[in-house]
Amino acid sequence: MILTTGLRYFQIHVFNFKYGGEFSPIFISVIFILLNRKDSFKMLSFNRFELKPLLLPILAIIFAVAIDFIVQFRFQLIRQPVVDMSFLIKLAIFSVLFTILVGGFEEIGWRGYLTSKIIQYKLSWNQLIVITSIIWAIWHLPTHFSKFENHFYVQYPFFIISCFELSIIMAYLRIRTNSVIPAIILHSLIALLYENFFKSTLNYKDFYFLTFPSILMILLLLPVSIYYYKRGCKLYLDNLKTELKMAVPNMQYSKKGF
């Protein structure tokens, strides 16, 4: 956590490069794999996956983003995008870049290696969510310090909430599919939509809640994250029971998250 956050700080505040720091989660993960003989690159979880479990989360995210866009546009908080050929070309280029730089580099670290280590140590579902959410939120500290300045202490708590909501959804996909790719797709989709369709009519430094996550987005994602929290908890516990049963027969298990 310290290494990835430190690399991101130098990327933003020293080198003044907006997207390069996203490499730090995957970079640190690879370093740990190389240094630890017990680890392997399989822990990055770059596996084939079943598409079906990803469809409902994608639809839920698109619906929530669409409602958020309509409300913000209705109150003239964001500008209407000009959908022309240059916009479509830019959208296509950003789709590739965001999948690699934002979704790929981040999620291979968080939902790939980090989640694999948590599973390896047989921590609970609740611990998985708390650890990944907090590390993910702290990793974004340099960005929020530079973007929101005096509004940081108001905006950042909302961002932490969104980290927990999205971590629940993406952790479920990671456990359900045994692959980090669905989390990469979902993360990239959210970043792509907000980057290209939410252009503020005001200065975001003065109107802090316009950027992701908006308060409305957090409220819309709440029932989705609760739904996947319950499904993920049961799935994770069932998987853990299966592994423990193979190691220690006739063991009794608790239904509690912790």
- What topology, given as strand order, has the largest sheet? 1-2
Residues in β-strands, percent: under 5%
- Helix-strand topology string: HHHEHHHHHEH
Biggest sheet: strands, sense, closure?
Answer: 2 strands, antiparallel
CA gyration radius, whole angstroms: 19 Å
- Which descriptor suits the 3D outline? globular
Task: Count every helix, treating DSSP H or I runs of 4 or more residues as helices.
Answer: 9
Mean pLDDT rating: 82
Give the total of domains.
Answer: 1
Structural class: mainly alpha
Helicity range: over 70%
Distance between the termini: 23 Å
Number of strands: 2
- Low confidence ranges: 5-15
Please, could you describe this protein's structure?
The chain is mainly alpha-helical and 258 residues long. It has one domain. 71% of the residues lie in helices and 2% in strands. The chain has nine helices and two strands; from the N terminus they run αααβαααααβα. Strands 1-2 form a two-stranded antiparallel sheet. About 4% of the residues have low confidence.
